Amino acid sequence: MTSLIFIIAVLMLTAIMLDRWISWKTAPYIFDDLRQLPEREVGMVLGTSKYYKSGTYNQYYFYRIQGAVNAYNGGKIKYLLLSGDNAQHNYNEPITMRKDLLKAGIPASSIVMDFAGFRTLDSIVRTRKVFDTDDFTIITQRFHCERALFIAMHFDIEAQCYAVPSPKNMMTIRFREVLARLGALTDLYILKREPRFLGPLMPIPAPHVTPAGIQSYPAVSPDEL
């Protein structure tokens, strides 16, 4: 019994130390104050559900959307990449985020959606390998920033994070985050996971190619036609 308690204590201490190490390693690249956030072309918003199963509004979602609006209107980013899950017919994080950003006044031409952001690792790696963006701003809560940036650093991606506010009473979420970080370490160093889906290159912004033999060709988005 004593040996079991000792083993559990060692495992818990190891988990806490790894959690703190990830926080320390990523701290220089996290910005709580929008005024201090360096400008980047792309801001990648990590998706979450808009409502809990109980039907109550998810404040984590609200703060991420508001943070994205503030970063765009503040001139800190030019395009918003919305990365999230759409595994179910009636659950589509990128579409939901896009609707709320349009309502907030963000132009459709500045919004790009990634429907294969099933996990944080997928979202981070796909931003580089699919959307051809290596130095982008992640928009999410600080605890999530730390894990996302740790994944980015592992793949030599030069990301930074705008840490939006977190709701109060987040102890349960923080405990789950410790477990999520252990999962991320396992994915990166043991399982060496890659995104579930990649696909063709879709740079942000999309390159405009002038047809041969035509001197001028106006570039407009479908929303401007």
From TrEMBL:
It is a single-pass membrane protein. It comes from the Bacteria. Residues 44-167 form the DUF218 domain. It holds the Pfam family DUF218. The keyword S-adenosyl-L-methionine does not apply. Its main location: membrane. GO terms for cellular component: plasma membrane. Keywords: Cell inner membrane, Cell membrane, Membrane, Transmembrane, Transmembrane helix. It is found in: Cell inner membrane. InterPro entries: Cell_Envelope_Assoc (IPR051599), DUF218 (IPR003848), Uncharacterised_SanA (IPR023604). NCBIfam families: PRK10834.1 (NF008092). Participates in the barrier function of the cell envelope. This is SanA protein. It comes from Xenorhabdus koppenhoeferi. The lineage of its organism: Bacteria, Pseudomonadati, Pseudomonadota, Gammaproteobacteria, Enterobacterales.
